[in-house]
UniProtKB/TrEMBL annotation:
EC number: 2.7.7.65
UniProt-listed GO biological process terms: cell adhesion involved in single-species biofilm formation; negative regulation of bacterial-type flagellum-dependent cell motility
Comp. bias regions, Basic and acidic residues: 133-147
Catalytic reaction list: 2 GTP = 3',3'-c-di-GMP + 2 diphosphate
Taxonomic source organism: Alkalisalibacterium limincola
Region (Disordered) residue spans: 123-147
Name assigned to this protein: diguanylate cyclase
GO MF terms held by the record: diguanylate cyclase activity
Length: 147
């Protein structure tokens, strides 16, 4: 394993060009779709934002499911310039609720994750952020894995 920089998906287009950025977006979508259930749905909302509908995920599991996905993207999506980090926001629909306020809450949670330091998950209504990975752990893994 080589050394990796960690860079938000958002800046990849600017640094490496739109063609390289489009490849990253395609690879990200393929990785996510490979890790979720067939009944879950992934939509590109525009630019570098995606909407993932997770059918039947309970409130207690949503945070963990999303953080596992964040870790998978970080660990497995290796692109020119280093690893990609993502900020993920989640929300649960309320009974009888239209999709617009639900999406608005998920969007607010995503922006909270970005403002909280990026590369993390926030679920609307939860005050407990997921612990960010220790960057020293990557260096320790690289030292072990290096020849």
């Amino acid at each position: 394993m080589g050394r990796h920089r960690h860079r938000p998906l958002q800046g990849h287009h600017d640094r490496f060009g739109h063609e390289a950025g489009d490849v990253v977006i395609r690879d990200l979508a393929e990785l996510v779709q490979a890790r979720v259930r067939k009944r879950d749905r992934l939509y590109r909302m525009g630019g570098e934002e995606f909407l993932l509908l997770l059918d039947g995920v309970e409130a207690g599991a949503l945070h963990q499911v999303l953080d596992t996905l964040r870790e998978t993207i970080h660990d497995e999506l290796d692109v020119p310039g280093g690893r990609i980090t993502v900020s993920i926001g989640g929300a649960l629909p309320l009974p009888g609720e239209d999709w617009r306020p639900w999406l608005s809450r998920a969007d607010a949670a995503m922006y909270d994750a970005k403002q909280g330091g990026r590369n993390q998950v926030r679920v609307f209504g939860s005050n407990t952020p997921v612990q960010r990975p220790d960057p020293r752990a990557d260096r320790r893994r690289e030292a072990v894995d290096s020849p």
